[in-house]
């Protein structure tokens, strides 16, 4: 492995000396040689930071990483539905879905080019398209709804009338969504309601200052000529066509609603937005398997440290038959409210939610006299003592008011001009990421060490395994190292909170070994009482063995021989056709040794 590290450092340095920063100019040179017939197609290519690209080449090899990068730019060709077995059954859900979902041409490869068999192939046999119930043992409550693609779209005579959407909007459309008004960036002149329009994507570009963005004013008029904004950059980035639901003027005058009703899609996937609420939940297959890896048992006390949006939390609760206690925490007020809403929709009563920063999950006690349920005896009933606890606070956020009266004094409430301007902006733009329009959440100051049977840490990460992905340029070696440091600090909290004999499951949705295998290495080296445990079911592949030395001398250690089969790494380019995902399961031994 030493030889491999030396080769990596050498090639890394050569790339660093000779690399050309990826910029709009560079993209123009690349795109200008595209064949005109391929302009109205979907053939994206992810562009990575040069140093990060070399790092991934070292980890995976050139051919493998090329396949991963290509897979990330397209969606999975099926949707995975988790059935709430406390309210329904997979067969009943299939019957309800049948009249709502039209039959499509199921395009799931049973064999890939390398001859590797598709583990989901069995699910297709004897199943009427486009539905199939998962036949993997233990996952019979999972329903696959198969889609198809990529499709070649006939855009008619060029140039067609056109709408350019933001990259995030396009990624949602590729997963089955419609084009909503906020995602529209530009539009051809003279588009009227009912017109057929081609939909293309504006992907962020690097400016001369090194920053990334879209150098386009929202509302830009397209003339259909090579002088149009982003004309060359849109080659091979057409995701389908649909019917304009508003005129060009209307798309930029209203703030919500569907702008384009997609009719012909490059990838034909079904949308399940607001369908059978409380009965089904749309969730990626690896996320479902992460809940199974935790192996929750009835009556246990479980912590989901970074629980939003609540998919894994509710999956764990259903596996426990809603018997026991699940503490779900997140540092965002709005996200905690979302978990509460999802648990209520699914009829789950064992989930208790708190606003809490994962880095402060272990409470700090000054003495042993605390009787706080979140910082005392783990067996105390949290719900019965919420309002008596010094370490639990109720946070209530009311709708924003710019002026009013104090009911206690019947006097005017003073609002500064700065606050008034801020409230006006919020009223115009909607609530931000850290504000909400109202609701109550309980705030916790942490939990005592050893107070949980199992802990799930689905850590915030670089998310480089999510797909479809049309942009990856902003991530750097430095940003990935920052993610890894943050995750280690959270894992240190998780280790303290699990009792001896308990279980920790760590998961991410990234392909970055520094956030996956390197975290496992850190955990096993630092905490000698931790050991990797087998996972069931096992559908992912093995982890990465070895290490990587960077030009600055930093050595990133991964797994050692024999450990790779005890983790699950979901490769987006594999026959499973999932997102990139990683799962590690740890058994906690005696902490006295």
Question: Would you tell me the structural class of the helices and strands?
Answer: alpha/beta
What's the alpha carbon Rg, rounded to whole Å?
26 Å
First-last Cα distance = 32 Å
The residue ranges in which pLDDT falls below 50 over 5 or more consecutive positions are: 1-35, 104-115, 367-372, 376-390, 398-409
Q: What does the overall shape look like?
A: globular
Q: DSSP strand (E) fraction?
A: 15-25%
Arithmetic mean of pLDDT: 83
Subunit organisation of the chains:
single chain
Could you give a short account of the major beta sheet? 10 strands, mixed
Helical fraction equals: 10-25%
DSSP summary: helix tally:
14
Give the total of beta strands: 27
Search tags:
593 residues, alpha/beta, ten-stranded mixed sheet, seven-stranded mixed sheet, 14 helices, 27 strands, 25% helix, disordered N terminus
Description:
The protein is an alpha/beta fold. Helices cover about 25% and strands about 20% of the residues. The protein is built from 14 helices and 27 strands. Strand 18 and strand 19 form a beta hairpin. Helix 1 runs antiparallel to helix 3 and helix 3 packs across helix 4 (about 60-70). It is globular and about 75 Å long. Mean pLDDT is about 85; it is low at about 1-35, about 105-115, about 365-370, about 375-390 and about 400-410.
In short:
By secondary structure, the chain is an alpha/beta fold. Helix content is 25%, strand content 22%.
What's the structural blueprint in terms of helices and strands?
Layout (H helix, E strand, L loop, with lengths): L1 H17 L5 H8 L18 H11 L1 H11 L5 E6 L6 H8 L23 H4 L6 E3 L8 E5 L15 E5 H8 L4 E2 L3 E5 L7 E7 L2 E2 L5 E2 L6 E3 L15 E7 L3 H4 L6 E8 L14 E3 L2 H10 L6 E4 L6 H9 L5 E6 L2 H13 L5 E5 L36 E6 L7 E2 L4 E2 L4 H13 L9 E6 L7 E7 L18 H21 E11 L8 H10 L3 E3 L14 E3 L5 E3 L9 E4 L10 E8 L5
Parallel strand pairs: 4-7, 6-10, 14-15, 14-21, 15-16, 16-20, 21-22
Antiparallel strand pairs: 1-3, 1-13, 2-3, 4-6, 5-12, 7-11, 8-9, 11-12, 17-20, 18-19, 22-27, 23-27, 24-25, 26-27
Helix pairs in contact: 1-3, 3-4, 9-10, 13-14
């Amino acid at each position: 492995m030493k030889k491999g590290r030396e080769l990596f450092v050498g090639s890394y340095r050569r790339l660093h000396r000779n690399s050309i920063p990826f910029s709009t100019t560079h993209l123009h040179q690349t795109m200008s040689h595209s064949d005109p017939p391929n302009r109205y197609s979907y053939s994206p290519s992810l562009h990575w930071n040069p140093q990060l690209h070399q790092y991934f080449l070292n980890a995976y090899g050139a051919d493998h990483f090329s396949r991963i990068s290509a897979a990330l730019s397209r969606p999975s060709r099926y949707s995975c539905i988790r059935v709430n077995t406390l309210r329904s059954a997979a067969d009943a859900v299939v019957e309800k879905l049948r009249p709502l979902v039209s039959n499509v041409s199921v395009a799931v490869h049973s064999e890939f080019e390398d001859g590797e068999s598709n583990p989901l192939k069995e699910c297709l046999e004897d199943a009427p398209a486009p539905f199939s119930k998962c036949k993997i043992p233990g996952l019979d409550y999972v329903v696959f709804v198969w889609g198809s693609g990529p499709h070649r779209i006939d855009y008619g005579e060029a140039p067609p009338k056109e709408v350019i959407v933001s990259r995030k909007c396009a990624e949602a459309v590729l997963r089955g969504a419609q084009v909503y008004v906020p995602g529209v960036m530009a539009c051809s002149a003279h588009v009227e309601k009912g017109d057929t329009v081609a939909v293309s994507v504006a992907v962020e570009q690097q400016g001369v200052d090194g920053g990334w963005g879209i150098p386009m004013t929202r509302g830009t008029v397209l003339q259909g000529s090579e002088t149009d904004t982003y004309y060359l950059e849109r080659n091979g980035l057409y995701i389908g066509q649909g019917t304009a639901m508003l005129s060009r003027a209307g798309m930029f005058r209203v703030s919500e609603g569907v702008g384009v009703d997609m009719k012909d899609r490059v990838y034909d996937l079904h949308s399940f937005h607001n369908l059978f609420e409380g009965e089904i939940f749309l969730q990626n297959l690896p996320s479902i398997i992460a809940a199974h890896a935790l192996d929750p048992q009835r009556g246990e006390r479980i912590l989901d440290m970074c629980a939003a949006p609540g998919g894994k939390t509710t999956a764990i609760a259903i596996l426990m038959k809603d018997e026991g206690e699940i503490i779900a925490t997140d540092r965002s007020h709005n996200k905690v409210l979302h978990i509460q809403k999802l648990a209520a929709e699914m009829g789950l009563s064992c989930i208790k939610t708190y606003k809490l920063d994962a880095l402060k999950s272990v409470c700090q006690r000054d003495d042993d006299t605390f009787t706080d349920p979140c910082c005392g005896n783990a067996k105390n009933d949290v719900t019965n003592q919420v309002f008596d606890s010094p370490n639990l606070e109720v946070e209530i956020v009311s709708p924003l008011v710019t002026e009013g009266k104090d009911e206690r004094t019947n006097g005017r409430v003073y609002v500064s001009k700065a606050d008034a301007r801020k409230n006006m902006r919020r009223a115009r733009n909607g609530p931000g990421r850290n504000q909400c329009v109202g609701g109550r959440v309980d705030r916790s100051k942490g939990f005592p060490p050893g107070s949980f049977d199992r802990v799930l840490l689905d850590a915030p990460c670089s998310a480089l395994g999510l797909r479809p992905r049309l942009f990856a340029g902003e991530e750097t070696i430095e940003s990935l190292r920052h993610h890894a440091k943050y995750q280690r600090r959270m894992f240190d909290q998780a280790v303290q909170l699990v009792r001896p004999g308990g279980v920790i499951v760590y998961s991410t949705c990234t392909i970055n070994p520094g956030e996956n295998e390197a975290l496992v290495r850190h955990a096993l080296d630092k905490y000698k009482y931790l050991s990797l445990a087998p996972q069931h079911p096992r559908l992912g592949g093995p982890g990465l063995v070895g290490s990587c030395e960077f030009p600055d001398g930093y050595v990133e250690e991964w797994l050692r021989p024999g450990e790779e089969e005890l983790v699950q790494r979901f490769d987006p380019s594999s026959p499973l056709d999932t997102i990139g995902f990683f799962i590690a399961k740890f058994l906690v031994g005696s902490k006295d040794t």
